Amino acid sequence: MIHKTSSELQHFVPVKPTKEPVEFVSLRTIDLGRYGEGPVARAELAEEIRLAMTTQGFFNLINHGLSEEEITRQVDIGHHVFSNTPREEKEKLQAPILEEGSYHGFKLRGHWRAGPAARDKVENFNVYRDMTLREQPSTLLPFQAEVQEFIDHTHKEILFKLLHLFALSLKLDDEQFFVKAHSYDKHDETWLRYMEYYDEFSDEEKKSTKGLWLGGHQDLTSLSLLFSQPMASLQVRDYDNNSEWKYVRHIPGAMIVNAGEVMLWWTGNYYKAAIHRVHEPPQDQKGHNRCSVFYFCLPNDDVVINTLLDQSPVLREAGVEMAHKPEDAPTSKEWCNGRIKITGQNAVWDKMNPDDRVMVEKVGKLEAMSPPEQTRRRRTKACAECRQQKLRCDAQINHPDRCSRCRRMDLTCVMSDAYKRTKRLSRVEMQREIQRLESRLSSNSPQGSAARSPEAPTNQAVPVDISPSPAQEPSPRVVQGTMPEYHELRESTPQGVSLDGLVVPPDTINTLFSLYFARCSPCLPILEVTSPEQSYEESPFLFWTIVYVASRQFEDDTLMPQLVTRVVDLAFKAISSWPSFRRAAIRTIQGLLLLSAWPVPVDTRGKDISQVFSCTALQLAIRNGFHISRNGQEFSRTVLEHAKDESVNCARLWAYCTIISQSINLGDGLPPLVYLDSFDYNRMNQNFWPSLDPRLKLHLKLHKVQTDAVREIAQSGFIGHCSADETKTLNTFIYLYDERLLALIDRPLNEHEKVAFDSVRLHIQVFRFFGNSESIEKPGFVRLFSFACDVLEDLDQLEAPHGFVVHGPLFNNWIITLAAFTILRLLRSELRQYLDYRRGERAYFMAIDLFRKMSVDHNDLQARGIVIMAQLWTSQNIFRQTDGTTDGLCLRIRSRLAAGVVFDCFWWWRAEFQGQPNPYADLTGEISGNRMSHGVLDMPGASSMFDQTLAAPLVEDRSINAGFTADMIPDWDWATSLEVPFDTCISDSLL
Ligand SMILES: O=C(O)CCC(=O)C(=O)O
Ligand SMILES: [Fe+2]
């Protein structure tokens, strides 16, 4: 029972419950009244909680001890504070969100982004349980005791019970573990929040927000307790029903409980930090404010958050993984302060699902939308200048030298605890800062070439990578596990950053950087998280490459085409400067790798220069000694001070150089450029190996088996001709390499790793096509078919939640095509009878659909690939032998290694759909006639199986050589919305 103060309060009149036929989610209900009934009741409640947390991630809480009237009273207090506190006082008592990462105080309207072009319309007032820590608004003072009592009750009587039940639900060794982690007497960021949403978006803003008042997000909390209120607006994803967004029903007097990211980490993602959002209400509730009360809970400041595997048999049985390496786990304070600072600032909206508008927030390497990556704490101080500019500072504490930025700009470098950043630069100062960046570009360019101003003629030289002189070389940053702050380019800078006449506003740059690190980077984590400013300072080339890569999937699709030639120009300039200073070389290599992995769109493979960039990156890495696990001193003309610390970073970069260049070469049917053991000066066992993250280690091991297999198979002569006896040996090789791959797996693989694993398996298995029919080994081909389907199904699975293919490197192209054509070949062969036709067909069209998603230009390789794949599926001529039978096992192009499987299909396509003469026409007969192929013709009964019925599974009665039309594949509704200019594609030379 909360003691009411006598002070008068105006009642906030909430909306009436909606009568509209909106859909509500069905949530479990926990009756906290049963908590006192004894251990059996508690065990039952705990199990209910476990079920709720592993499904919806939300539940209703009733009988929690606070009456409806007491909750209403709090809503009234909140509304009173919002309506009656003078604006100046609110401003004065704003929470130090950006400065300290604390919510204690007011959050005024507009602090968060509510859409690409709108700020929020929500006012918050947050109270910490020690209300004396900050000055409270005059409007609250009369109610302070009452609010304190409400907080205390919520914390001690509701939260503690819930935490106890949560511990029981996980069967923690220490039942009180969560309770102790939320001690009432210690400090943490837990806050009571009053929140008032104002229904005041303009029409223009509504377009940007798509009706959302608060974008989809996860809470940063351990638990969030929301006091139910009548406006239908809170929505959660209904995981029981296609993850559709559904409203949460109002239950008078109840609370709604959900877990946040801290609980997600504690449980290794076993408990969902469910995504939720606030949507404008149905029609009959529109035009009203929404005022409500919440209690957002966080562990005490010093609690280190990590997965409780050692404490919980439930988690061990569930097979979850540790969220962080023990030494890397963040404390509650570090996490909260970092996360609160950036909340709603660098939001990236889910482009795949624009209506969902799910925000991704990043604190350094900790991404709020997915189970965490590792993080390590970094506690360095910044000098006053760097703090002012919000730049990372490499000043050494108690060291007489100036930081590298102050040295460069000839500033006084002062370290002072008392220094407080002044919030915003004046417009003039900002102007100066931008000019400084631009003039740095021109003055540092070799041969004095100037950065182009917007007016400069477009054929002038463009800025190139800046190689710091040795004296200025900044000290290295630890790549793995740092928790860098996410800096922004100052929002109000009017001009933005320019490249060769193209000006990109700071806001866009920020969004693109967030997009890159949230979406692209997880697929191929070459880069450490960095801010736009830092990145630009270190290497404009790398900066622009990041901007380009992210722009591929940016909502404004006019940006990417403007960037491509500029970025390629920059790349060539960067190469021509051939940096030999380690830091500059690192940045150039990184940029080249990005451009290799996400090459600029081209319409024919011949124009793709990713090979050039990846080989160059590789060579530049070797030249700088990155392939040696020592510090690289032997490769330098100056004394390398920091190189030792960087050896892990360089080893990682070297790993990516080999993996990327290899993937690109193999995809083009060229031999691997580098065999890891050529450089294996016992490096695998040296100090860097244990520091590499497990995913990269696995990738390297897979890569080693893959290249060994390709080398051995190619060198053993199976490529040119393969007799029946040799086929047996070939199959044995394939079998042994597959065993080697399987032996690498000593732990469950995550989704990314599984795709990599299946891809390598598929790549080795396709060499079966090089065998001879005499020794046809059916089980091997059936497995091959299954791998091909697995690869496409895995990729398709990964695509929906992560956009793995859309945002991932484009060399995934190759594996998609390889899998699709493997399926096509096998389904058009005598082996068809042993295969699951429908599965193959589904997987084949998944490949087409993945290409559709990857395509960023109507005429790029993916768009063209769609047409080719769709036409070949319906072709009656493909793999047609001279005697009229169809044999997908007959491989005519053999010197392009595994890629022959793909290129051979392209030639079938060219001959049929492009009217090109078939250069292999004679060979087709010859191969079959000479039994170099699998000689299907000679198999008893085979020829009758390979007649017309096989060739056109989906469309009957179609005339051969007809142009592709969407209704050829009527089952796939995407095809009808496909905007591929078929005429141009077909008339141009392809691939
Ligand atoms: O307003 C609500 O109902 C939810 C608010 C919320 O999700 C949040 O502040 O994190
Ligand atoms: Fe929330």
In short:
With 991 residues, this protein is an alpha+beta fold. The protein folds into three domains: 28-367, Jelly Rolls; 443-691, no CATH class; 719-987, no CATH class. It has an eight-stranded mixed beta sheet. The protein has a four-stranded antiparallel beta sheet with strand order 8-13-10-11, with no helix packed on it.
Notable traits:
binds fe (ii) ion, alpha+beta, four-stranded antiparallel beta sheet, single chain, 991 residues, disordered C terminus, Jelly Rolls, eight-stranded mixed beta sheet, 8% strand, binds 2-oxoglutaric acid
Describe the fold and architecture:
- This protein is of the alpha+beta class.
- The chain has three domains: 340 residues, Sandwich (Jelly Rolls), CATH 2.60.120.330; 249 residues, no CATH class; 269 residues, no CATH class.
- It has 33 helices and 20 strands.
- Strands 1-2-12-9-14-7-6-3 form an eight-stranded mixed β-sheet. Strands 8-13-10-11 form a four-stranded antiparallel β-sheet, with no helix packed on it. Strands 4-5 form a two-stranded antiparallel sheet.
- Strand 17 and strand 18 form a beta hairpin.
- Helix 15 crosses helix 16.
- It is globular, with a radius of gyration of 31 Å.
- It starts with 27 loop residues before the first strand and ends with a helix.
- It binds 2-oxoglutaric acid (AKG) and fe (ii) ion (FE2).
- The site of fe (ii) ion has 3 residues, from loops.
